[in-house]
Every structure is written in C-alpha cells, then in structure tokens.
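Per reviewer request, we include the raw input and output of the structure prediction for the construct analysed in the revised manuscript.
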Amino acid sequence: MRVSIHLLGRFAVSVDGRDVPAADWRRDRAAALVKLLALSPGHRIHREQAMERFWPDADPEAAGASLRKAIHFARRALGAHELIELRNDIVSFGPQAELEIDTESFEAAAKAALRGHGNDVREGSDHERAADLYGGRLLPDDVFVEWLEAPREQLRQRYSDVLRAGGLWQRLIALDPADEQAQCALMQAALDAGNRVEAIRQFNQLRDNLHAELGVGPSAATIALYERALALSSTETVSSSERVRTALAWGLVHLQSGAFDKASDIARETRDLALGADLPREVGEASALLGLSSMMRAQWPQLFRSEFIEWVRARPAFVKHVFDGHLCLSEFCLCSAKGHAEVAGLARELLSVAEEAGSVAGRGLACLLLGEAALFSGELDEAEDYLGEAERLLLEADAVAGRVLAIERLAEIALERGQKWRAGRLIQRGLADAERSWLSPHLIMRMQALAVRAAATPKMVAEEILAGDRLMTPGACQPCSMALRTASAIALAEAGKLEEVDHRLNEAERIAGMWHGGPWAAALWEARGVQRRAQKKEVRALAAFEEAASRYEELGRPRDQARCLARMGPEG
C-alpha cells in the first residue's frame, strides 16, 4: 500500500492514488493524529504522549477513550484499518505501507544541498531542487497549534538556509520581505549591472516592508547602497522623492540608535523637503518620525498641540497628512492609564482652534479624539455623536486613516449594543477604505479584531480568525495586533479549541510586556479568565476576571470593568 501525505502548504492525504476528500476529516482529532504521526520519528508515538498532546487536562480514562475514537475516525477517513496500528501502547502509522511525506523529501534534499560547497552549477541547482520541494509553511491552517511551532520553525529555517546558501534571493524575499541581506544582494547585483532603477526599486521595496511597523527602517549599510545607486550616473537627476526617502531612512537610523534630537532635526528638514515637492505620504512619514522622537523623550502631547495649532492655522492643505503621522501615537496616549481623560482635555482645546481656523480636517481629528475618549469613559451616546461627526468631516477632508479609525470605534459601539449586523457593515466599509492609506497594515489589523468579535456563526468566526492569522507577518505592528490576538484567543476558548489558545496568549503577553500602561494587560487577564473557564478551572477563572476588572477600573474604563465583573456571575 502506498500513502502520500502533504504537510507543506496544505494538508492532503492519498492512499494508493485515491485522494482522501477534505470532508472525510470531519473529526479534527482524527486529522491531528495523522499529522502528529506523520511528523513523529519513525511515524510512531506512545499512546500516553498522544493523550498528553491532545487531552492534557482530561483524566487518563477519558483521554484514552478519546484517543481510541480518534484512531477509529482516522482509519475510517483513510479507508484502510491497517494504516494506524495500536500495539503494546505504541500508536504507529503505516508500518507495512510505502510512505511518501513531503516534509521528509524536503529535509533529505535540503541536507544534501547544504552539505555541498555551492560553488558550481550542479550544486546551485541542488539548492533550487531542494527549494522546489518546500511547498509552503507547515500546515498553514493550524498556525497556532502549539506543538507544531517547533517543527514549523525548523522547516522554515532549513528552507531559509537553502535559499541563502544557493543565493536564491528573490525566493528569500518572498519568505521574508524584510530580509536585508537578500535585498542588499539584489541591490548590489543591480548596481554591478549598472541598473540604477532596479537598485532603487529594491530599496523602496525593503523600506515599505520594514515600514509596516512604525519606527523601523533599513540599516546604515543598506542606505549607503541606495546612495550609491542615486549617484550612479551624473547624467540622471536625483528626484525629490529619492532625496526624501534617503533622509527619512537616515532619520530612522538615528531614532533606533537613541539620537532623538538628531532624528527630530532630520524629520523637520525632510518634512520641509516633502512639502516643497508635494509628497503627501512622505509628509506624514516625516511627521511620524518627529512624533516618535518626541514620544521617546516623553514630550509627545506638547509637540502634538503645537503641531496641530501651527498646521490648522498656517498650512491647511497638508493638515490631514501631518495628522496621519501622529495617529498611532495619539492612539497610544489614549490607551495609557486614564490617558483618554488627558487627551479629551487637549482635544476640546484643539477643536476650538480648528473651528476658528475653518479647518475641516482639524475639526474631524478633534472630534475623533473626543469620541474615543467618551467611548473609553463608557459614554456611548456621546461617543457615537462625536464619532459620527468625525467620520463625516474626515470624509469631506479625504483624511482616510482618521476616518477608518472613526468607523472602527463606531463598530465597537455597535458591538457593545449587541448589533453585530451593524458592526459587520461598518467593518466592511472600514476595511475597504483602509486599503487607500499608507497606514493600512495598522488599520486592517485593528479592523480584523472587530471582524472576529462580530462574526455571527462558528464557521464565520473560524474564517475571520484565519484571515487575522494571515496578517501576522514579520514586521506586523505588535501593539496593533494585541486586540486581534486576544479576540481570537477568547473566541477559540469559547469554542473549546483550547490547543490553539495558549500559544496566542503567551505571544500576546510578550508584546504586552514591552508596552506598559495600557489596556493590554487587562485584556490578557480577561482572555486568561475565559481560557481557565473553558478548562474547567473556575477558581482561577474568577481570579483572572477580578484582576482584569481591577485593571480596567484603574484605566477609567467602566464598561470594560463591568463586562469582566459580569463574567464572574453565575451565567459567566
């Protein structure tokens, strides 16, 4: 009997040339057992290891019964009883069958290619042949199954090693768009060929991929290559946008090295260049660099106030782009301990300034901040009024990022009122608009968290969680991912899919530890409470909900506090 199993990029099984239909894997544990055996050494595992892997909180008798059911349904799906054998407490797969497993084929080819010296054509093709066998991420639909984390990373690293050793730089960039070695190699190759345009394109691609997370930019060595590309031909004029991009990249280098004053000076000079060249996105990026530099020195509120007043009065045409650069920072301040009260006071002053100056974008931003502050304070009607006005004004000003944030908060209010249908319509509108903004990676991540919460059926919840998982790419904004991580963990715990919860929350805890003072710790305690309740650990669940409620109270968020207290009641 011949059995072929695909684990890279997809899960598929064929027995003697007959594909097992996906619908036949109706029982998740049956498919999970086959996956576990396919990845285990010798395709065998002790029954107690399988029980601990899949049912760690069950008593031995119940776990044993569950394992027997999984074996039964796996045999039924495969159509061959003898393919899974349980003998002497050892579960084995295909002991008498001819097995073809794509992970093993790739590993063998990769090891052989890496043993070579990589200097001749034949060895180069060995790397390509090995790379061709990597069909994609290991079991991508099981991205948060904790026991798959180690083999998934091992296979990904092996693939990366093959690509690097073989100089397959384009494939390496496809694997990790922010890989600077690969981008620099392609830039150098383009420069060696005298292709200035291609070297510049590669730099811009790297810059955009790194820019998904604010405050991250290319290294000094990469920027130096870019400057060589700009100087390659004296007959070609360096454009204003190229000069601006170079300056912004150097500003980020100084920011990352702690030279905040220098980064601020570069940000102001670069913004003036971008203004003169009519480059609105770069105006926003320079403003973000300036804001980040002030945030690092605990001076952002003062900077934002002076920026707001100056721009709404003197330079109204670029107001929305400057404010785009400050939006993530204003969100961070809103989420600090009772920060929404401080921001509300500032926003009321700025609303008066914007009204006097006749600035539509300024009024829209001030209304957005006031609406968010009211929402966090638990005043839903007041929040909805401000946010509705903000959406209208920001639509008129074509300030896309601010408008998407207003829509996001309106969707939150709809969810608070139990109006999932209305929230869903707002989310779809927000997602469509977010694509138009240079801040789209941040905006889409935040909106997807609401999509998980608004999903009306278990199937829709699973689809939205999977869509959210696909956003967790290298360089994704970590603070913006927190709501998505906790919403997905809560939904999975409530659905009983506990094996996917712990890894998500562990990663969320790591991120929350880097960003103190906001609601993330409270949200994590709440998610842990839902997880403990699903694990039948009621005492620990109640303690977690109590801690979450206490932290929300400290933040001045009464509705979040009330929700956590309600979870402590008999109905949960």
